[in-house]
Design brief:
Blueprint (H helix, E strand, L loop, with lengths): L1 H10 L21 H36 L4 H4 L22 H16 L3 E4 L4 E3 L2 H18 L15
Antiparallel strand pairs: 1-2
């Protein structure tokens, strides 16, 4: 019989009610469900109220900003097209000539300037001359400078012009 008593005592929970530990405690009652429910309801109502207040504030601020802004530029010049300042990109609105025509015109102007006489700065007396004449004058000037400069030999002694 002594064996059966041991088995029964091993399955039973021991009574520990007499053991006291002041640092360790546990909850004595159930959770207050009613309080939690009203807290969640209040939180939901508060969230909706804040959302409505923010929506009203944003609407008021948008109306105030729209009243303070000038109308868009497209409405100011209704009926007329506003063009960007010069220089404009080729083929953009307001650019009159096509790119190929503009290139031909530019080349013709450059050729005309290279092959004609004209003033660069009239008060100071600076002119431009045709390119062919300018080349001839430059060759004449460099030829005169070569003739005036004494020619020297590799040793550094002046050479005579006659040979």
């Amino acid at each position: 019989m002594p064996n059966t008593e041991r088995v029964n005592h091993a399955d039973e929970t021991p009574d520990v009610s007499d053991i006291k530990n002041p640092d360790v405690t546990h909850e004595q009652s159930d959770v207050n469900i009613r309080g939690i429910f009203w807290f969640i309801v209040g939180l939901g109502v508060f969230t909706v109220a804040v959302y409505v207040a923010m929506a009203l504030i944003f609407d008021a601020l948008e109306k105030r900003e729209a009243a303070a802004e000038p109308p868009p530029r497209s409405l100011l010049g209704a009926g007329q097209q506003r063009l960007p300042p010069e220089p404009r990109l080729q083929l953009a609105p307001g650019h009159e000539t096509p790119p190929l025509e503009e290139r031909k015109t530019s080349l013709a102007e450059m050729k005309q300037r290279l092959n004609s006489y004209g003033w660069v700065n009239k008060p100071t007396g600076v002119v431009h001359i045709p390119i062919d004449e300018a080349k001839k004058l430059l060759l004449e000037q460099t030829g005169r400078q070569k003739q005036q400069a004494p020619q020297t030999s590799p040793s550094g002694a002046p050479q005579s012009r006659e040979r």
